[in-house]
Design brief:
single chain; 513 residues; mainly beta; 2 domains; 4-stranded antiparallel sheet; 6 helices; 33 strands
Length: 513
Amino acid sequence: MKPKLHIMIGLFLAVFLVPGVLAAQEFFWCGGDITEMISSEQAEALQATLTQIHGAVTRGMWARGMRNDEETPVTGVVRYDMDKAWDGYTLLCTMGGYIDPDTGVNNPAILIDMEGNVINAWPLTSTPSKILPGGYIIGQEGFLGSSGGQTCPLVQLDWNGDKVWEWRGQPRSPGAEELFGCHHDFQRQGSPVGYYAPGLEPMATGGKTLMLSNYHPPVEQTKHISRHLLHDDALYEVDWEGNLTWQWHAWEYYDQMGFCDAAREAVYETFSGFDPNGGSDYHHFNAASYLGPNKWYDASDLRFHPDNVIFDCRSSNILGIIARHDHPEGQWASGDVIWRVGPDYSYGRPEHKLGQIIGQHHVHMIPQGLPGAGNILVYDNGGNAGYGPLMPGLSPTANNRLREYSRILEFDPVTLEVVWEYANPMARYDDQGNCVEASFFSPFISGAQRLANGNTLICQGSNGRIFEVTAEKEIVWEYISPHLGPVNPEAGQFGSTNIYRAYRIPRSWVPEG
């Protein structure tokens, strides 16, 4: 068995460098300065070790966990307390899919009941789909050409799979004919976050749709950001007819993202992403939603206007809120980032009380009508992300923060005090050696939803694991996906049980019969 990465790092610090440095791990990955404890040559050796191919930093993103040992695989619903779980259907946005036994069609969007039975499935892509009242589903379909990256047309299907609405995308650069579609997240008017909250139902037909997209700004306009073409993030809002009602491009607000000089240097020099021809994906937004009605705005804090948009950036460890309206006294303009957490979580910063957030997904404000309403809920993945030096005094790099477990954080957006947290770095076993509670780590994808009874539904995406926990952190429902998806090595398909995100919906949203 390979030792855990944090143990490897500790041994490297303690043995290869100097005795007593092991304690420095407590703050090393949060920007703590250990350069006074080691020489500059040793610091450079540490950076080389951690950033080499398959080293701790580059490897962290691809770490995997196990629900149980390989000899006793467990799939389907493995735990269900009917008295404590919130009843409904669960939508799985899988990266593998359900192969229809009659047609052979692969359906990555799968709706299951509380016992794990498949109720319906649709041939939408693995990024999130969302059920609307009446049994409609909205999600992404196919990919938009060779330069489309992860973007897809956004479509709405009825219960039977017939298309009732679609949005093809916006030009990928000024004057371009090729389009960038939707990636990672979207919201339909009526529901700020795309899941059930009393009195905040998404519009099944009609209304506006907010979505994440990409954009290639002209290189001459972004020379202050990167020496590479940017695979920039964009936000678009369109009406039911597809008319653009609002747009926002991240590169225009780069100076409001809080990067220090060293982080700016790392962003400038580093190419982030997988497609050398597609541009540097330096932020990698993966969540965007409206704030919706909330107590902070009711108390006259204009930062939390219900129309404002909250987002997060996986690669830069940033959470933020975008203003949709000018401040009445001129403190900000529409489009400004008026609330931000990260990218710096070091000592002395307000964010430090949250702990280092890394590679996060699915940040949103818990909607009005649900327990914890007004607090921020985020899946803090861990893995590796961020820009800057691994520690002060070293040259800036990408992926300069690493943690080998995930956390669900619920926190007050005004004080940044943690209200509730779920984390379980190590699996627990009974006296017979059986796993009774899995370790909790998904370094990419994933999400969390607050349920009407106060429980939290958690998608541990890289393990294909969905589970529901109470406020006391008792697991009352747990599902391990058996849906492997296509296996065709010649076509680059190797099967996957990963789940990008999952949503619990009330039974009333699904047609009877």
